[in-house]
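Q: Sequence in, structure out?
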Amino acid sequence: MTGNTSYDSTRPVERPRVVLRSRRAARGGVREHGPMRAIRLVTPGDAAALADVLQASREFLAPWEPVRGEEYFTESGQRAMIEVALARHEQGTDLPCVITGEAGQVAGRINLSQIVRGPFESCSLGYWVGAAHGGRGLASRAVADIVAAAFGPLRLHRIQAGTLVHNVRSRRVLERNGFARFGLAPRYLSIAGQWQDHVLYQRLRDTGSAAG
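A: Exactly. Output:
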């Protein structure tokens, strides 16, 4: 989260539980917030598949990601990250998901993080898709799904996302999902070993954009 926001952290906060099921698992039941076409909650059992996708996509993702240690690309490294993410999910601060392909295979990750309650009711969005799954609209569908979760059962007011200025594909994904640019953050994150500018986007629950 950027900027300074003051709120009463002592106020009891209700943390709605979000149940995300894969397309196949959901056919026999009712989902809480409409059809999830491309995401489900991550599980420790996804660690091996995520490691495989990351290893195969290492060069493809490198220009858009922070510099990663070798452990990040291993099953044990991914399992450790998943355990941390699920612990934060239990605390109500994260919604960690995998992106799934047409056959239900793991194709990437998408997350809502830094969920803040009170008068802010906001979160940050981040995602990546493996090299073999790009160019098929999967990222757009995954973002649409997680937006539905944020504004549905999570009852958030705002989602923020940032992307590299030259990451045209990611900017288009956000814009297709109703996000509007609201700023530029100079040298915002260290990506590919360099501090790089990011375009900042947001989507508001009431309007579907930054306007209004």
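Residues 157 and 205 are 5 Å apart (CA to CA).
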